[in-house]
Amino acid sequence: MVLILNLIAQGAQMMLVLILAPLLLGYTRKIKARLLRRQGPPVLQPYRDLLRLIRKEAVLAENASWLFRSGPYLIFAATWVAAALVPTFAVQLQFSWTADLIALTALIGSARFFLALVGMDVGTSFGGIGSSREMMFASLAEPAMIMIVFTLALLAGSTQLSVIAEFMQTHASLRVSLGLALIALVIVALAENARIPVDNPATHLELTMVHEAMVLEYSARHLAVLEFASALKLLLYLSLIACIFMPWGLALAGSGPEAYAIGLTSYLAKLAVGGFLLALFETSIAKMRVFRVPDFLGIALMLGLLGMLLLFVSRSF
Amino acid sequence: MTPVVVALCSVSAFLGLPLLVAAAMRWSAATRPIYGACFVVCLVILVVALTQLLSAGSTVSTLSLPLGLPWVGAHFRIDALAAFFLAVVNLGGASASLFAIGYGMHEEAPGRVLPFYAAFLAGMNLVVLADDAFTFLVSWEFMSLSSWALVMAHHHDPENRHAGYVYIVMASFGTLSLLLGFGLLAGGGGGYSFDEMRSAPTALSGLVLILAILGAGSKAGLVPLHVWLPLAHPAAPSHVSALMSGVMTKVAVYGFIRIVFDLSGAPAWWWSIVIIPLAGITCVLGVLSALMQHDLKRLLAYHTVENIGIIFIGLGLALAFSAHNMRAAAALAMTAALLHVLNHSIFKSLLFFGSGAVLTATGERDMEHLGGLIHGMPLTAFTFLAGCMAISALPPLNGFVSEWLIFQAILLSPDLPQWGLKFLVPAIGAMLALSAALAAACFVKAFGVTFLGRPRTTVAAGAQEVDRWSLAAMFIFAGLCLLIGIIPAPIIDTLAPVVNTLVAEHMPMQSTDPWLSIVPIAESRSSYNGLLVFLFITISTLAAIEIIHRFASRAVRRGPAWDCGFPDPSPATQYTAGGFAQPIRRVFSSLFDAREDVTMPAPGDTAAARLTIRLRDLTWEMLYAPVGGAIWFAADHLSHLQFLTIRKYLSLVFALLVILLFFLMLVMLVWS
Q1: How many Cβ contacts (< 8 angstroms) between chains A and B?
Q2: Which pLDDT does position A204 carry in this prediction?
Q3: Distance between CA atoms of B425 and B421, rounded to whole angstroms?
Q4: Do B533 and A59 touch (CB under 8 A)?
């Protein structure tokens, strides 16, 4: 009986991230438009776009391979699994121990690996430019992420996200390392999600594109799945920041339906705040040149390393 | 028959086989029989090693033969460590032989490859079996020389001759270091068998460590001793490259473990401070150099350097933990290193097989002349992709498991009391993370430029799938990559007796954990379940495909590429290997002193623009070139001594005698 309830809670989380991801995207776009004094598309527009896209006939380039056709689904699946393993409304769900934070980072890395590959499949110059730059960003963002993981793991004594979230909720105190880790994580999240200032999700100027350049050859259902995956990734990073740095309201292990309800409400509130801050940040900053991005990510790497070193040193006192 | 006897009989089969064949038939007809026989013999030793590892655990099988030095004899021994490495060597050997049953048919001069191939396998097995310094060194040198002969198999190419020259110089240097190291271990009494060394540890074990790093490290490819590796590994035929990169470097790791963990006694605290930074630098430099290559096999060879760095990080951590008596942590680091040894031998062999298949199909190693091979060679492309994912440490494949364990070991290091290590280990963690991310970039480049996109040449466009033997070898290894990735628990448990002999503790048994998770210390601390990750990804992929195809649309139309409305039919408009790496080259340009010169023709001029990229190998220029120059200078000046009269020679001998006596006198004076 307990097992069934636990499985339902885990399944609910998988479905929840799937349902919320396009909504978060639509919400962020709406806020951005309102900040720019535009009306903006309706909040539900991403759902309509996805539905419209999956009904269409897919147009493939003549030399597109099997990898090109199966890649989007693999990317979507890896991102979905990763997103469903981040605590949203409750910690210690049935399968939360499947992958710890390091494995989660690597899982996102798998999705990115395939995205960069499918970008090169048709053999156009834009796909190559996108893949090449994406891997350059990733080669700095991923170590920064690992440094953040190390910082958190040293504090909480675990790389399990559920344990970290529980620790932060119950006995966390203000620490310099945590502040550094938060800044680093925000930078990494911006870069990983191809947001301004690293990349522009709404760009139409090809030479400045990174993420959009890789998916340039896609249409219809393949494009829909890829767009869905990137929406999931945005949700994943916001959930990650929320569950580590704003763990209030998360239902603890073994709590009942009321705790789940509180957890869900607070999760939605956190997403609303996170999406708003993202939109605010994006409207108030300009995109950088591609070769300024390594410096930007280098800051994240150094902050992560610094945070970890501080912990290594302070633990011995 | 005891296991060691079976193993030795098999080794003598390796040695006898070519002689038999040479007497019976022509080399050109011998390819399949020899590789087939090697395959069978490797399987026999593999089974022996596995039974020893699984059933016997910590029991030891020994044998002494009246060969070699008369007062030492030749000792052979299979303990848990040797059994594990025997399994690694022969797993690689069996699959390389299987691959070569097909691949070897394309060899132009089989007589230059076949006898040395069997001898090479014998040499590697003997190194692992040896139980005294003399047998070990002879086998080590035998392994070096037979692999040198294989590197020189295509000696008409001046590049290969250069590679062979550098290789043999470095191999001799390595053996010399090991010789001195064993001399120190044996001590004044001359106890050359490993048993005597174990029972009487030397006082100079620090010096032994340095010599082991020089000797075994140069064979494994630790920076800065790695220079020969990216030259020699690609020069050999591909199945031999797979053996050299995937297996011979592991034999070197075995040598290092045997000397440092088994024979040298208790480790001192500073040992890890020597090894860990060296390993970290090896990681980052290895992967960055790999990224800069456009020769597929050379890229793979440079990448071996990175993986050796990862293994040595694990070994260094194990030394650090066991020097401070943190047994559980040491066991974790050691298990991680050994698991990476196995994993790397699998996926690196797989990738070299893939490059061999590409070479067979197109005759090209240069990625800039390839592209689009996924259409002509879909099966090779699939297995190569599996290898690329595994080596980039992506879940749910095997490379990730061992790197994850190393990260977990790094996270245990704040409890180390040494300040140097406290600062060092986090920095190494950052370097490891950086090299893992760069590895992904490197293999996106390798796979993307070689197999994806449009064919850049006509040979690439006409590529055909390779033969069944080669495909079988590649598919078996790709399957192993997945299998070890999703159920690593039994392998980790099998490693327990090995780890136990080295650091006197082993990781908690994993097979009893629910759902086949791996839990290095406690579940509240960290756990990873590759099986579930794999199942979740598979189920969600299939569900997504099924739902979309059933309820939405499955219609497909083929058309020209979009390319923002301006598709260019020339494949030259694709991204190249050099172009792909350019952003990363720019970010890390100071490590290579990279210079880019662009020559643009004047406006209106229709001449082609030129981009020249110059990369410098700073290790070579700053370390090897000066040393080589000094040796050249000295040789040049000392050559006068060759042309003296007998009178002058006699007076030189006399002068030397006087000088030596003078020194003797000084020593006597100081002594008294």
Answers
A1: 283
A2: 63
A3: 6
A4: no
